[in-house]
Design a protein that fits this description.
metal-binding, binds adenosine-5'-triphosphate, cytoplasm, 34% helix, 16 helices, binds magnesium ion, alpha/beta, 542 residues, binds 6-O-phosphono-beta-D-fructofuranose
Length: 542
């Protein structure tokens, strides 16, 4: 049984796009159809950066029900015909009871509710629809991977290709070589089930990836020139922003082209979705480094194992690897400030742990403690090609400082081993559960695109796959909330200090409470629409 509330939506929630219902022979739809909305509804600047998105599709229902819907081709391309979904005659699926998703199914963003809580925000449930907006031989799809590597990229590529081919009979699928810039600067790679058959067993991406090089006009020109009508874009928060401007430009040009985003990031910092693919694999691999650090540390007198893990702005990998391993005595993440010297500081804690236990393990996320690093040693203001701030190496900095402290104070002789497995945890193939997850993501993206949805990111929300508007996943980043239970569990498991004074802790708590109260107040005072906007900035997953 579905745990999602499935009452039929009131008629006013039904969007035209779902009910046009025209089917019949394919009347050679032109690839380019001028859209019916004013061109200045959206502005693109031809490159990275600011853009004005067209209005969100928000519908309201009873008891504070809000549907944040995703765009559909029929929103701007008139008179599109629909076709029977070929899955209806696919022997594997035709026997499945209720294989097609009811068009009224939506997925709740918030599932912990009170008696009087408004029903809140919902997203359109992902999955195959009875009717599709593309004929098999009309589809010309492309796949691109952007940003840093992540376990499972190849699995997603494989499953998009196989899903399109086996489920929808699509034969024309192109790989874009080397990220966004590949659209206009490289040759394409033809993809077939045979080409992708074994790729899920390899780390990395067979398509290559890159940062920077997002030139919206050139990318959309290339899509238009090649006659591509389904664009699958796999990448992190930056990539989804890029996908969003591509979608806006496609819409502005009135093209019958869908843009589907598949969220990818090792840091697990993408808002709204439960978790990003590859994260579990990375956490599992991080265990190996932590295990080695522990073995090294416990084999010598006053051994300290220090492991640096990825996590630019969010400490999820460090937090989960710490919780999973149970060998870690201290976990440092970007969200939780710490200090070295003085009472209650890190040096104090190390000394205490070594006296108690004879050894200890510290895990540090790469984005932690950046503000502590001496200005002279900072790579001030440097950015990568995508505009992401370049971080200073907190691992070496911490290692040097701990060693120097114990050498200077001569309190005890310590033996520190520093392990940096950062790239090792993301360059590996995905594990079994991530492989299954990648398959669901890819298939959900394919079903959504075939059904004519566009401008969406696909992902699980409370365990159910949903189509989420781009703006929802790009407006905020998912971060560890240090006043939540999960961080408390970690503190209880490592026994480390919180490094926050009671005053700071109270302030942090108040900030979070204020955000919650504001949310409720704005709902009560101004109605659900305001809440929709406000919730964009308060996506704090456990
Ligand atoms: N605001 C933006 N508008 C358009 N394109 C963008 C924007 N931000 C980033 N991009 C493009 O998206 C691509 C990937 O961005 P980025 O390097 O930040 O990685 P990411 O997708 O965030 O993944 P990760 O951080 O997990 O490695 C790059 O080609 C970059 O040019
Ligand atoms: O060295 P690269 O490829 O730029 O990637 C490093 C960054 O990419 C990530 O893996 C994902 O954003 C971060 O954890 C890390 O800071
Ligand atoms: Mg990013």
């Amino acid at each position: 049984m579905d745990s999602v509330y499935r009452a039929p939506l009131p008629p006013k929630l039904r969007f035209e796009s779902e009910y046009t219902g025209k089917s019949g022979p394919h009347p050679s739809v032109p690839t380019t159809v001028r859209r019916q909305v004013p061109a200045d509804n959206c502005r693109c600047n031809g490159g990275m950066g600011d853009f004005v998105r067209s209005d969100p599709k928000i519908a309201h229902g009873e008891a504070g029900y809000v549907l944040e819907d995703v765009p559909h081709l029929t929103d701007y391309v008139p008179d599109l015909p629909t076709y029977t979904n070929p899955l209806q005659i696919n022997p594997a699926y035709s026997v499945v009871k209720q294989y097609f998703v009811n068009i009224d199914d939506t997925v709740a963003q918030k599932i912990v509710v009170h008696k009087s809580s408004p029903r809140g925000i919902h997203f359109r449930r992902a999955g195959p629809r009875q009717k599709v907006y593309f004929e098999s031989d009309e589809v010309h799809a492309c796949i691109v991977t952007c940003g840093g590597l992540c376990p499972g990229l190849n699995t997603v590529i494989r499953e998009i290709v196989c899903g399109l081919h086996h489920m929808y009979g699509v034969r024309r699928i192109l790989g874009i070589d080397g990220g966004y810039k590949g659209f206009y600067a490289r040759n394409t790679i033809p993809l077939t089930p045979k080409v992708v058959n074994d790729i899920h067993k390899r780390g990395g991406t067979i398509l290559g990836t890159s940062r920077g090089g997002h030139d919206t006009s050139k990318i959309v020109d290339s899509i238009q020139d090649r006659g591509i009508n389904q664009v699958y874009i796999i990448g992190g928060d930056g990539t989804q922003k890029g996908a969003s401007v591509i979608f806006e430009e496609i819409q502005r040009r009135g093209l019958k082209v869908v843009v589907a985003g598949i969220p990818k990031t090792i840091d697990n910092d993408i808002a709204v979705i439960d978790k990003s693919f590859g994260f579990d694999t990375a956490v599992e691999e991080a265990q190996r480094a932590i295990y080695a650090a522990h073995v090294e540390a416990e084999s010598v007198e006053n051994g300290v194992g220090l492991v640096k893990l990825m996590g630019r702005n969010s400490g999820f990998i460090a937090m989960y690897a710490t919780l999973a391993s149970r060998d870690v005595d201290c976990c440092l993440i970007p969200e939780s400030p710490f200090y070295l010297e003085g009472e209650g500081g890190l040096f104090d804690y190390i000394e205490k742990r070594l006296k108690e236990n004879g050894h200890m393990v510290i895990v540090v996320a790469e984005g932690a403690g950046q503000e502590l690093i001496d200005e002279s040693k900072r790579s001030m203001g440097k950015e990568d090609a995508s505009g992401n701030k370049q971080l200073d190496d907190v691992g070496h900095w911490l290692s040097d400082n701990i060693k120097e402290h114990f050498r200077k104070t001569q309190k005890m002789v310590i033996n520190l081993k520093y392990i940096d497995p950062t790239y090792m945890i993301r360059a590996i193939p995905s594990n079994a559960s991530d492989n299954v997850y990648c398959t669901l993501l890819a298939q959900s993206a394919v079903h959504g695109a075939m059904a004519g949805y566009t401008g969406f990111t696909v992902g699980p929300v409370n365990g159910r796959h949903a189509y989420i508007p781009f703006y929802r996943v790009t407006e905020t980043q998912n971060k560890v909330v240090i006043t939540d239970r999960m961080w408390a569990r970690l503190l209880a498991s490592t026994n480390q200090p919180s490094f926050l004074s009671p005053k700071e802790l109270a302030e942090e708590k108040k900030l979070n409470e204020d955000a919650q109260t504001q949310l409720l107040d704005s709902y009560n005072a101004k109605g659900a629409e305001t809440v929709v906007a406000d919730q964009a900035t308060s996506n704090n997953k456990p």
